[in-house]
Every structure is written in C-alpha cells, then in structure tokens.
Amino acid sequence: MRFLDDRAYEEVAGGAMRINRDVAIAQHVFILQPYVKWSAKRTTPVDVTPDDQLAEATALIHSLPNWQVARSLKVPLESLERKTLFGSGKIAEIKELLAQLRNERQVNSIFVSKGTLSFAQRQFLEDEFKLPVLDRYSVVIQILRLHATSAEARLQVAMAELPYIWSQAKDASATQTRRQGYSLTDQQKEILRTRERKLRAELDDVRRQRRLLRKKRKQLNCPTAAVVGYTNAGKTSLIKALTMEDAMQPRNQLFATLDVTAHAGYLPCNLQIIYMDTVGFMSDLPTGLFECFVATLEDAMLADIIIHVQDLSHPCHAAQRAHVEATLRSLAFSVSQGNSNAGELPPIINVFNKCDLLKPNAQVSMLAEQTDTAMCHLTSARTHAGLQTLLKDVEQQILDVTGRRKLQVRVPSGGPEMAWLYKNAAVVDTKADEQNAEKILMRVVISQCTLDQFMREFC
Ligand SMILES: Nc1nc2c(ncn2[C@@H]2O[C@H](COP(=O)(O)OP(=O)(O)OP(=O)(O)O)[C@@H](O)[C@H]2O)c(=O)[nH]1
Ligand SMILES: [Mg+2]
Predict the structure, then answer these.
(1) Which end of the chain lies in a sparser environment, N or C, as judged by fewer CB atoms within 10 Å?
(2) Going by CA atoms, what residue is nearest to atom 26 of ligand 1?
(3) What is the ipTM for the molecules in this complex?
(4) Where are the alpha helices (DSSP H) in 379-447?
C-alpha cells in the first residue's frame, strides 16, 4: 500500500485536479452554481431547484475542515457545454465580485458546482479569474481522500482519480496544451498506467477477501439487512440507534462513510441480524467516481433485505429517493448478470428519517403521499421515534425472506434439546408447561433446515 503515497503521481494528479494532499490549508471558496434556465436542456429533476443545488455545493465545501464559503452565486445559463461556460457579461460581473471579495476578505479558489469542467472550460476560467478552479469531481475527491481510512476505501478513491486525470489530458487539444502548458508526458502516462495496474491488483485482492467474508457470513446463517441511501440521510445514525453500538460515528458531512461495515443487532424475537452500513449516494456525480464504490454495494445487493434511509427534512428527498432507487435497480442488474434472477432486488423497506425536524402535520401528509409504497416508516435516529415499529417490520421481512418461522416447542426442562435450541435458533421466550412440570414451552424462531436438524437429532 506504500505505493499510494507517490510524489511523482501527486504532481500529475495535482495538476489535473487542482488539489493536493494538504487539506489542512484554509480555503476560502467562491461557489458558482450554474444552472440551465430552460427545462428542455436541464439534466436535473424538475423538483431540484438551483437553490437546492447550491445548498448541496455548500454542504460539500463544509465537509472539508478549514474550508469556508466566501461567497456564492447562482448563474443561469442556456447550456453547460459552452467552451467559456459563462458569457462575457457574466465573466465581467464575477470578476467585479471577486475584486470586492479580495478587498473585504480572502478568497483563494473558485468552485464551479458542475460535475466536471472540460479542460478548456477550466483553463479559460482560471485565466480570467486568476484563481484555481475546482469542479464537483475534484471537491468530492478531496472529501473522499480525507474520509477514506480503510485500505479498500483508500484504494477505491485512488482508482476514482484516474479516469478524471485521463479525461482532462484527453480534453486538452494539441494547440491548447502548447499554449496553456498542460499535457501528459510519456513518463507521466507511464506513472498513471503503472499506478492503475497496482491498484487493480490490490483491489482484486481486497474483493476476494470480501467475497470470502460474505461466504463465511452466509455459512453462519445470520440474516443481513443492507442500509442504503443518499449521503447524510442518517444511515450510520440509524444503525447506531438500532444496535446501540457506541463506537459508530455519524457525522454531519457528505460522504462520511466510505466503507461497507457490518454491525450486529437483535430483532424483537431475539434473532441476531447484521446491518451493513454503506457508502452514500449523490446525484450528478460524474461517471467514474461512483463506479469505484459500486463493488462495495455488491454486498447490499446480496443482503436479505434493503433498508432505504431517506432524509425527510431535505427539500429534495423525493428526487434523492428516485435517484437511489434507479441506481439500485441498475446495480442489481449488473450484480446478478448471468443469474436466473437477473435484476431482482431484495425487498426494500423505506425509512423516512429525521422526522423530528418536521412539524407533526407535515409528517402525516408526507406519509399520505407515500401510500403507494407498501413498506414505509417515519423514524428519527435522534429521538428513536418509530424504531420499534420499524424493527417489527424488519423482523417480518427477514422471517419471510429467509423462510424462518416462529414456533412453540415443548421440551424437557433443562435437557439437551433446550441447550441445542439456545445454540442453533433464536429463543423468543420460555414458560413453564402448566400440564407437565418437567417440560418447558419454548417459543423459537427457526428455519426449516434447522428444524429438520433438530428433528433428526431428538425425535
Ligand atoms: N435531527 C436529526 N438528525 C439526524 C437524524 N439522523 C441523523 N441525523 C444527523 O444527520 C447527520 C448525518 O448522519 P449520518 O448517520 O452520518 O448519515 P449517513 O447517511 O451515514 O451519511 P454518509 O455516511 O455521508 O452517507 C448527522 O449530523 C446526524 O446527527 C435524525 O433522525 N434527526
Ligand atoms: Mg454514514
């Protein structure tokens, strides 16, 4: 893994992405939020307003320590593809604002909140504004670099950087590169190729281990629920509330969780369940970025059920939900290719979280809107509202999907049958048998296969 810290690579990457490893340096960012005025050319859903987009851009900047928003501006455009991005009048207006800002306080970079800027767009804007210009890709990469702690997450982030660097270099035409000085030398290209080869080999290794772990989990026969959703919806918080696992750390930052981690909890019937915490989704992420994390979501696709956590207090929660659902469907398809159940998703339980932030009558109308959805729950990971009913639903789904049943069995009190059931099934409760003092009534949750084993052993 030492190859990840490679100075020669950092130079190439820094040139393309305008970022460096030293995120501790304070940044005062001027956010420009371009949006397309006419609906025909819009790529964002109609219920996502430019203000919503700007709020997300601001949240991205605030996810980096020491990064502050010096000023922000929404810029209506006819299209996002123009070579200069903005018209000359707008450029002049922004320059004026920048001059004012420089007088009042610091500003040392510009964040154009668009998936990726072409090489030409970025060069043009940097020449005009005389400041480094970042796009969403480079800001998200910066956050991911900071939040990636496990080996797998670090490898994935490193991998996510490469397509961007290549695309920037490809964008740069021969005349531009001569004039503006950005092109990859053969040596730099070799640095990128070698890094990619090493990353692929390491990631293959990590994924082999992940598959092994998954197999082991399956052998343990413990039911699993994958917790998925948009970034900052409250996935980690919900799992923490359901498992009482103190070590988990929810954070008010985008892309706080970058690893798929497993957390054990208990259902009301005492059956153990594993919750898988996953990487959050975000719309308008350039291709190449999210794909690198898709492999970690494979586990989610193979879980017994999916819990889709949504931030009900977010103005764009409906668009976020549609985005997550569409991505899940396409993921399910790619994961199960070649299988007979191609494209089939595990049952999904919708969780409308952060309901504590809504007024009670707003909650009711929100829920009424969702009547088409069979399984949905209003919850608050903060106040724990709605968690008991959610758990009951999770239990029901798990029992259905995994073919487990609740049964009452009469066994000798203190006998080997009792010990066997405690070891191999989930014991809901026990009570004395009023008709026979030597027997005990046990309510258990058990799969058909375990029940068959029990019968073979004791009947
Ligand atoms: N008011 C309120 N805040 C919540 C609730 N659930 C989570 N939060 C807050 O929302 C923020 C994000 O929570 P996380 O649990 O880290 O969200 P996440 O979905 O895991 O986010 P990523 O890991 O970035 O994908 C934190 O500041 C939480 O304290 C809730 O029910 N009510
Ligand atoms: Mg999280």
Answers:
(1) C
(2) 252
(3) 0.99
(4) 387-402, 416-424
